[in-house]
Amino acid sequence: MKVLLLADGMESGGAETHILTLARELLRSGHEVGLFSCGGKIADRLEREGVYCRTVPKIGHNPFAFWAAKRILSKEVRKNGYEILHAHTRMTALLARQFCNPYIKKSAKTPPLVVTAHAKFRADGIFRLLSVWGEETIAVSEDLRAYLADRYRVPAERITVIPNGIDADLYSPEDGFFEKKENPSGKKEDFPKKRKIPFEKTEIDPNKTGSLSAKKGCFEENFNNKPLEILFVSRLDSDCSLGAELLCRAAQILEGSETVPPFCVTIAGQGSEAPRLCKLAGKTNLLAGKPLVRLVRPQGERELIALYRRSKIFVGVSRAALEASFCGCAVLLCGNEGYGGLLSPDRADLAASNFTCRGLPAATEKRLVRDLAGLLQNPDLCHANAEETRRWARKNFSAKSAVEETERVYRKLLWHRGKGAYLK
User: Fold this and answer.
1) Strand ranges (E), 242-307
2) Residue 63, CB-side half-sphere exposure with 13 Å CA sphere
3) What is the per-residue pLDDT across 211-232, written as a single tens digit (0 to 9) for each?
4) In the 3-class helix/strand/coil scheme, how is 55-101 assigned residue by residue?
5) In this predicted model, what pLDDT tens digit does every residue of 105-121 receive, in sequence order?
6) Mean pLDDT computed over 364-372
7) pLDDT tens digit string along 125-168?
8) Above 70 in pLDDT, residue 199?
9) Residue 345: CA atoms inside 13 Å, Cβ hemisphere, count?
10) What is the pLDDT of residue 233?
C-alpha cells in the first residue's frame, strides 16, 4: 500500500509526533510512505529513515501559495501512484479536496482521502466552510468524535476513534534503545551523539550552586544533591502553556515547605510564551536562591526521552502525558483546558478527551500544589502509581495497535473504491 501523509510544519508538537510514529509503523508493516509538508526537523528525520518527503513553502493565508501547493500535490499523487491520502491538518485536507469532490465520480485510480482530527477545530463562519473531512475521518478521542458529528455534521458511521499510540520500545524507562535500534527502512539510524541539553538562561548566578554551567550554557546531567525532578513538556504557546506557568508558581510555594524533599523543575519546549516563562523562572529562582526552575529546548527525540527517563513526576496533558507514563513518570494532568489530577488505571475516562482534561474543572495553582505535595511527600506512592499506570498505558495505547486500526480504515476505503462505490 502506498500512503501519502499530509501535514503543515513538522518541527514539533503532538500531532507531528503522531505522524512520525504512524509513518514508522507503516514502514515496519511493509508499506511505502510519503510525506507532503512544509518541512521541519521531524520531516528531516523521517527522510533519513526512508520516507519520501516532498516539501512546499509555508502556505499561511497566501492564495497563490495555496494554489501552487495544490498543483504540486496533484503532480506528486499522479507521479508516485499513491493509493491513500491521509491529511492531519485543516489546510492539507483542503488541499486534498480535489480528490474527494462530491461532484466528481471516483474511479479505482483516484486515491481516497482520510482526515485525522487532532483537536477541536473552529467551526464558526468561514472555518466550517473550509473544513474537509474526507471519505473517512479519524478522531483521536471520543469527545472529538461527538464534536465532529455535532458541529460539522460528519456522519457517525464515517468517524473512527483511534487514540494516540506510543512506541513502547522507544518510550521506556530502560536505556540502550538508541545504541541498538535500527530504523524501519533497515538502515542503521544516524542518531546524534549524546550531548548536554541547552537551557534558557535565567537571572540566577549559576556559579553559586554548581548545577548549571555558565560557560557552556547547558543543563548538567546530575545535581550535587540529586533532587527529585518534575518535568513539563509542551509547545509553549498561549493555548498550551498554562501548565508551565502554574508549575513555576507551585514550585515557588513548595520550595518553602519543610515537609517537601528537594526537587527541581524542568520546562521543555519552545513557542511564543517561552520568553515570558523564562522571566517567570528567573524570578522564581531568585526568590528560591538557587536554580529551581529551568527551561530547555530538546534537540530531538533522544534528548526529550532522556528528560522523561530521569524525571519522577510529569505535569502536562495529551500525548506528552502518555509518553511520560510510558517512560515511568507519575503523571499529573494539568493544562489550559482543565485539571485532571493524578493519572491512574481507574481514571480511564480521561482518555475520552485524549487526556486534555476538556470539560473538567479549571487548572489552578492550589490544585497543582496539593497534588504535587502529595507525590513529593510519598515517594513510594509516586513510584507505585507510575509503575501501575505504565503497565496500563502500554496495554491500551501502543503504537502498533493504533496503526493496525488505521490500516483497517485504509483497507475499508480501498475495498469500496475498488468496487466502484462512492462513499458519500
Assistant:
1) 263-268, 293-296
2) 0
3) 333 233 333 333 345 789 999 9
4) ECCCCCCCHHHHHHHHHHHHHHHHHHCCCEEEECCHHHHHHHHHHCC
5) 555 567 999 999 998 88
6) 97
7) 777 777 889 999 999 999 999 999 999 999 999 999 999 999 99
8) no
9) 13
10) 96
- What residue type is 424 in one-letter code? K
Q: Calculate what percentage of the chain has a pLDDT beyond 70.
A: 84
> At 240, which amino acid appears?
C
Provide the 10 A C-beta neighbour count for residue 75. 11
pTM (predicted TM-score): 0.82
DSSP-based three-state secondary structure for 319: helix
**Which residue, 153, 161, 119, is CA-closest to 137?**
161
Which CATH topology does 2-165+399-418 take?
Rossmann fold (3.40.50)
Q: Do domains 2-165+399-418 and 177-396 have the same CATH topology?
A: yes
Domain boundaries, the chain: 2-165+399-418, 177-396
* Cross-strand bridge partners of residue 114: 86, 136
Contact indicator for 300, 12 with CB cutoff of 8 Å: no
Distance CA 228, CA 38 (A): 39
Strands 32-37 and 113-117: unpaired
d(CA 254, CA 258): 9
At residue 36's C-alpha, the angle toward residues 34 and 40, to 5°, is: 105
**Second-level CATH architecture of 177-396:** 3-Layer(aba) Sandwich (3.40)
Q: Yes or no: say if 36 and 73 are a contact pair by the CB < 8 Å rule.
A: yes
By the 10 Å C-beta count (0-12 exposed, 13-18 middle, 19+ buried), 124 is classed as exposed
pLDDT digits (tens, 9 = 90+) for 27-52: 999 999 999 999 999 999 999 999 99
Is the distance from CB of 76 to CB of 34 less than 8 angstroms?
A: yes
2 pLDDT above the threshold of 60: yes
Going along 126-171, which residue ranges are E strands? 136-139, 159-161
Structural contact between residues 398 and 166, judged by C-beta atoms closer than 8 angstroms: yes
